[in-house]
Amino acid sequence: MAAYQLPQWAALAPALLLALTGLVLFLIDSISPRSTDRTLLAGTAAVGALASLAVAVWFTAAGVGTPTVDGGEGVIEIFDGQFVVDQLALYFMIVVTIVTALIVVASYDYLAGHTYQAEYYSLVVLAATGMATVAAANSLVTIFIALELTSLPSYALVAILKDNRGSVEAGLKYFLIGALSSAIFVYGISLVYGATGVLQLDSIAEVIADGGADGFGGLLGLGILMLLGGIAFKTASVPFHFWAPEAYEGAPAPISAFLSSASKAAGFVIAFRVFNVAFPLGEIGNVIGFDWTVAFVVLAIVTMTVGNFAAATQENVKRMLAYSSIGHAGYALIGLAGLSADGGELVMGAALMHLLVYGFMNTGAFLFVALAEHWGVGRTFEDYNGLSSQAPVACGAMAVFLFSLAGIPPFGGFFSKYFLFTGALQAATANTAMLAVAAALVVNSALSLYYYSRLVKALWIEDPPATRDRLGQPTGLYAAIVVAAVMTIVILPGFGPVAEAATGAAEALVN
Amino acid sequence: MVGTGAGPFSYAPAIALFPLAAFVISLVFGRQLPKKGAIPGIFATAASLLFSLWMFATVAGGETYHETLYEWSAGAVTTEVGAEEIAFSFGLLIDPLSALMLVIVSLVAFLVHVFSLGYMNDEGETGLPRYYASLGLFTFSMLAFVYADNLLMAFMFFELVGLCSYLLIGFWFRTKSAPSAAKKAFLVTRFGDYFFLIGVVAIASTFGTVAFAGEESFVVAAETAIEDGTTLFGFDAQTWVTITGLLVLGGVIGKSAQFPLHTWLPDAMEGPTTVSALIHAATMVAAGVYLVARMFGYYALSPTALSIIAFVGGFTALFAATMGVVKDDIKQVLAYSTISQYGYMMLGMGVGGYVAGVFHLMNHAFFKALLFLGSGAVIVLMHHEQDMWKMGGLKDKAPITYYTFLAGALALAGIVPFSGFWSKDEVLFDALIVGLEEPVILAAYAMGLLAVFFTGFYTFRMVFLTFHGEPRTETAEDPHGVGWSIKAPLVVLGLLAALVGFVNLAPIAKVAGMDITFLEYWLDGEYGYVEGLTYHHYHEMVAFEEGYIGSETTTMLLSAGLSLGLALAGAFAAHTLYNVPEPKRHTTKLGGAYTVLRNNYYQDEYQVWLAEGLTLPLARTADLFDRSVIDGAVDGVSGASLFGSSWVKRIQTGLVTNYAALIVAGFIALLLGLGLYGGWF
Amino acid sequence: MNDWIAIGALALVGLLIPLGMMAVSYLLRPTVPETSKRATYESGEIPTGGTRVRFNIQYYTVALLFLVFDIETVLLFPWAVVYLDAVESDSVSLLEILGPMLLFVAILLVGLAWAWRNGAVQWAQTPRQAAADSDRQ
């Protein structure tokens, strides 16, 4: 690294930069309230997100979090270990900031004529701050606070179209379910604290290893399960998924993209960190009677199946994507289900890769919906008929997203899914239930192709209705969609470093 | 004597690449070019011819070439003979055989291109860029096939040749018959190629190599396996060689139009006559026999396979010749003669007469190209009339066409001293000496001999009907003139048809004791050679005994006299029947046989029956199975999925209280399940 | 004996007590039906209007602002207690003591300024202001 050694707290720079951006946006709004200078606002937010992304990438490249034996800087602990900046944290910061940047750029056009511009951007950036903080949080308390920092702006963002009944209703539902889930989560924290007497993740593991939690198996187990509930809410996994279709459908489409990509990733980073660090497999089994992978096996299968099955017959495109997003949460859960006491970093690495690729393709797909909403063509599959004749570039990008989501070979989604599948099969040697997971993955992927290609068919094959106005070409939305599409494609040749980063992060966590 | 990359051979790839370039140019710029693509084609084939001659001269100078140019796949395998890896590559093999064939192919292709100027351009055909592009691709494929150094590459270009023939036969795709003929040619040869492909796979998986030549070739591997008595796939090594050899032979029979896959060839006359010349003389049909010659060492290992080749050849020779007797269309007669002549080549190969087979292949290439181009000239003269009964008396109106055509006819009929006589005689002689020891071969020989008579008959029937007698129609009285581009190729080929037989005067050599069997020396490695690919080597490998009537010379003279006599008898019969001012059909004399011959022994009918009566119901059953069972299962799955989907969708009621209740219920279910599993209660 | 039986018993008792009280009161009370008994109880006044009254949103914003500064005070308080001791000790510099709290207050100030500028502490709106505020969405 450079000759000048940065102070320890600077390791949180990606999150701090986002927080600063949020404050700057508030300042701008304070100086000129109700500002509609979209270029300034979106520009500030985008610059903040990109700066944060750049710092996170720089840190990764410079070896922050890489074990010192591999020539890296080692894991950096901040506030006595309340936060850690390791490969996993940086990886998810990258995912979150990428999605944030895409959303912000796309919102430039989507929010044209909207009153609450500054609030919108500052809330997005604050939520992103929360997500970046979540990635680094290493104690149940910091996790909870960061999680709430993520959730509260999200509620407001979903409901930000104040005159739109759908948006407000979605926001309220999201808020109510979120409150319930937060309550469950925080209750879980209290139970874990009750059983172990500590809150920091590695200390929990130490207490469990020392036998400090023996005799509180049920209590600890219940606590873990409640933590799982809170995480399931964030990741939109069954049975805590009920908010997702409504919230995604009602929210402004860029916010749906944000929630379903970045917010979900934030949920997963908690899951990965909490379960791997605080409740190491093997030792935890002695205390609560079983390994928590069982819970993830069940959740993964049920989530995949419910998500994909419900998506199959949707008529509303956004709702279809919402359910598909639930299905993808199920795929990512395989990363936890496939872990075992003596390894599994491969399958978890695959899940990390999937989340990154998903960050591009799912965001892109929702942004296309945002574009369609911007055009005002309607919301159902039928309304999308023949859009390709009027907007071939965007529709081509959408086809890329959909095929990638379905896992068709030339695109990034295929590889992550393929790695998940092989990882699941490999994990099956240690845990035969993984065979069922792998089978569910295949069946659900096949089913997902059905509804994804339905949309492609509507876009590319069906004839457009005669009475459709000329469609504009909003720069910001187009730019974001094209960038996402290009990334979905070029991530394939660049898969080497991505896979390396993902497995590296997974390895550091599992072992 | 295998050369490396240096010297003239480094230019060898250009031989095939010139026509490929012509293909691209004609395809892309054909419309803008003055002669619609003819010029690049002519120049490309001329260049190929020059380079081929250069290669030929270099081989004559004692060098050969065997080089892998590009390896596109290699990997570990488990084979029957223990080879552990296999490589698939593109490579060139230029030995005496392929050098000779390169010259023949490029020469005929060049002449056909020139002829096309008169036949296609001057007649105002449309779609010429497509025509010349296809010709270019056709030539490219055939040349690449000729000097392929391994079986897989040969197969690939073999297929490409088939594709090009499809394109060219169906050139006049707006007619009803041409596309149908093209499809037939494609499907029938494909049927044979199917076996060929299996053969390639079988050979590759048995020996772990598909190379034709060298120590690593499958021929050597097969020889070793037979010597070692290895068991291959549960068979005795020799049996397995026979099986795989016969599988490859499937492709040969399809392409070289041997019985029973000959049915496509007469229909292929739907293509332009120039294309017929190219297909029959030097490319498509020749490819089959050439393949046998190319891997002759492999067939030589299996007497059974050789006998089958010989018998099929002999049978086809007679079978096709009889059908040629009753045809009215000048091109149809030539078509059946082609089938028949390729039968001779197969007969020659099958009895171990490698030199005789190749000799006939070469002679046939020239005289059949000549005859087809000659018939093309006649067709131009006759304003695109092909029925011989509407011709007559063209002799005086078009002397160059007549004399060159006559040279070709004499060669085809096998009249001394024209080229066809020498090679056909050698084939029959080789068959006879083996036949004296092997009854099966004797039968094949007998059929081949009998076919000589029919050949002489139909050939001269064609000549007399076309050129002699009184003009029978108005067009025949006032024919259309032909230009230099038609005459020049005819003259070149006419000279070749008359003279090329002198390269291997085996009977005279035997009688006079002179060393004038140049082709034999050529193929026997007197000049340049590749180890294991010489006539000498093959001759040792073939297990047939040879017998003689009296001495060798007596046998030879007997054989030559017999075949010449029969040919002359056939020609004379034709002369008496048709060389009159007002010829009659004389078909009633044949009685019921006429109907049978006219219908080509009902070959088409039974093949159509096989397709419609047998394959179609089978296909219908498969289709029914597919639609009911397979599709049913698939539809069932999707139906169940969609039904499940609509059910899952219903959980989402839209009421947030329901959601909260469901979340709590789901959570409790998970809690109870895992709690019981973990023994918390 | 399973430990959970105690919890079950507690739940049972928890249910039985209110039910028992209601049952006893049902048995003891006289039944005098009267319409005013069905009316909503509003401190003895006669009820006016429906129950679903809209409160001014300002109540909430003010309450939220109050909460924010309430918590600020809670966090400031322990800091203030240790402040003098920390200044006197040599182990920490003044910047390290003062800096974080100033930053914290500064962030809160940004929030307050924003809330103020956006009218969170504006007690009443003129019709003109109200018109300018309405969302165009």
Automatic annotation (TrEMBL), chain A:
<dbReference type="GO" id="GO:0042773">
    <property type="term" value="P:ATP synthesis coupled electron transport"/>
</dbReference>
<feature type="transmembrane region" description="Helical">
    <location>
        <begin position="287"/>
        <end position="309"/>
    </location>
</feature>
<feature type="transmembrane region" description="Helical">
    <location>
        <begin position="174"/>
        <end position="195"/>
    </location>
</feature>
<dbReference type="GO" id="GO:0016020">
    <property type="term" value="C:membrane"/>
</dbReference>
<dbReference type="InterPro" id="IPR001750">
    <property type="entry name" value="ND/Mrp_TM"/>
</dbReference>
<dbReference type="GO" id="GO:0008137">
    <property type="term" value="F:NADH dehydrogenase (ubiquinone) activity"/>
</dbReference>
<feature type="transmembrane region" description="Helical">
    <location>
        <begin position="477"/>
        <end position="495"/>
    </location>
</feature>
<feature type="transmembrane region" description="Helical">
    <location>
        <begin position="40"/>
        <end position="61"/>
    </location>
</feature>
<feature type="transmembrane region" description="Helical">
    <location>
        <begin position="393"/>
        <end position="412"/>
    </location>
</feature>
<dbReference type="Pfam" id="PF00361">
    <property type="entry name" value="Proton_antipo_M"/>
</dbReference>
<protein>
    <submittedName>
        <fullName>Proton-translocating NADH-quinone oxidoreductase, chain N</fullName>
    </submittedName>
</protein>
<feature type="transmembrane region" description="Helical">
    <location>
        <begin position="6"/>
        <end position="28"/>
    </location>
</feature>
<feature type="transmembrane region" description="Helical">
    <location>
        <begin position="120"/>
        <end position="137"/>
    </location>
</feature>
<feature type="transmembrane region" description="Helical">
    <location>
        <begin position="215"/>
        <end position="233"/>
    </location>
</feature>
<feature type="transmembrane region" description="Helical">
    <location>
        <begin position="321"/>
        <end position="341"/>
    </location>
</feature>
TrEMBL record, chain B:
<feature type="transmembrane region" description="Helical">
    <location>
        <begin position="365"/>
        <end position="382"/>
    </location>
</feature>
<feature type="transmembrane region" description="Helical">
    <location>
        <begin position="333"/>
        <end position="359"/>
    </location>
</feature>
<keyword id="KW-0812">Transmembrane</keyword>
<dbReference type="Pfam" id="PF00361">
    <property type="entry name" value="Proton_antipo_M"/>
</dbReference>
<dbReference type="GO" id="GO:0008137">
    <property type="term" value="F:NADH dehydrogenase (ubiquinone) activity"/>
</dbReference>
<feature type="transmembrane region" description="Helical">
    <location>
        <begin position="154"/>
        <end position="173"/>
    </location>
</feature>
<keyword id="KW-0472">Membrane</keyword>
<dbReference type="InterPro" id="IPR003945">
    <property type="entry name" value="NU5C-like"/>
</dbReference>
<feature type="transmembrane region" description="Helical">
    <location>
        <begin position="659"/>
        <end position="680"/>
    </location>
</feature>
<feature type="transmembrane region" description="Helical">
    <location>
        <begin position="442"/>
        <end position="467"/>
    </location>
</feature>
<dbReference type="InterPro" id="IPR001516">
    <property type="entry name" value="Proton_antipo_N"/>
</dbReference>
<dbReference type="Pfam" id="PF00662">
    <property type="entry name" value="Proton_antipo_N"/>
</dbReference>
<feature type="transmembrane region" description="Helical">
    <location>
        <begin position="305"/>
        <end position="326"/>
    </location>
</feature>
<feature type="transmembrane region" description="Helical">
    <location>
        <begin position="194"/>
        <end position="213"/>
    </location>
</feature>
<feature type="transmembrane region" description="Helical">
    <location>
        <begin position="97"/>
        <end position="119"/>
    </location>
</feature>
Automatic annotation (TrEMBL), chain C:
<dbReference type="GO" id="GO:0008137">
    <property type="term" value="F:NADH dehydrogenase (ubiquinone) activity"/>
</dbReference>
<keyword id="KW-0472">Membrane</keyword>
<keyword id="KW-1133">Transmembrane helix</keyword>
<feature type="transmembrane region" description="Helical">
    <location>
        <begin position="6"/>
        <end position="28"/>
    </location>
</feature>
<feature type="transmembrane region" description="Helical">
    <location>
        <begin position="59"/>
        <end position="82"/>
    </location>
</feature>
<comment type="similarity">
    <text>Belongs to the complex I subunit 3 family.</text>
</comment>
<dbReference type="InterPro" id="IPR000440">
    <property type="entry name" value="NADH_UbQ/plastoQ_OxRdtase_su3"/>
</dbReference>
<keyword id="KW-0830">Ubiquinone</keyword>
<keyword id="KW-0812">Transmembrane</keyword>
<protein>
    <submittedName>
        <fullName>NADH-ubiquinone/plastoquinone oxidoreductase chain 3</fullName>
    </submittedName>
</protein>
<feature type="transmembrane region" description="Helical">
    <location>
        <begin position="94"/>
        <end position="116"/>
    </location>
</feature>
<dbReference type="GO" id="GO:0030964">
    <property type="term" value="C:NADH dehydrogenase complex"/>
</dbReference>
<dbReference type="Pfam" id="PF00507">
    <property type="entry name" value="Oxidored_q4"/>
</dbReference>
<keyword id="KW-0813">Transport</keyword>
<dbReference type="InterPro" id="IPR038430">
    <property type="entry name" value="NDAH_ubi_oxred_su3_sf"/>
</dbReference>
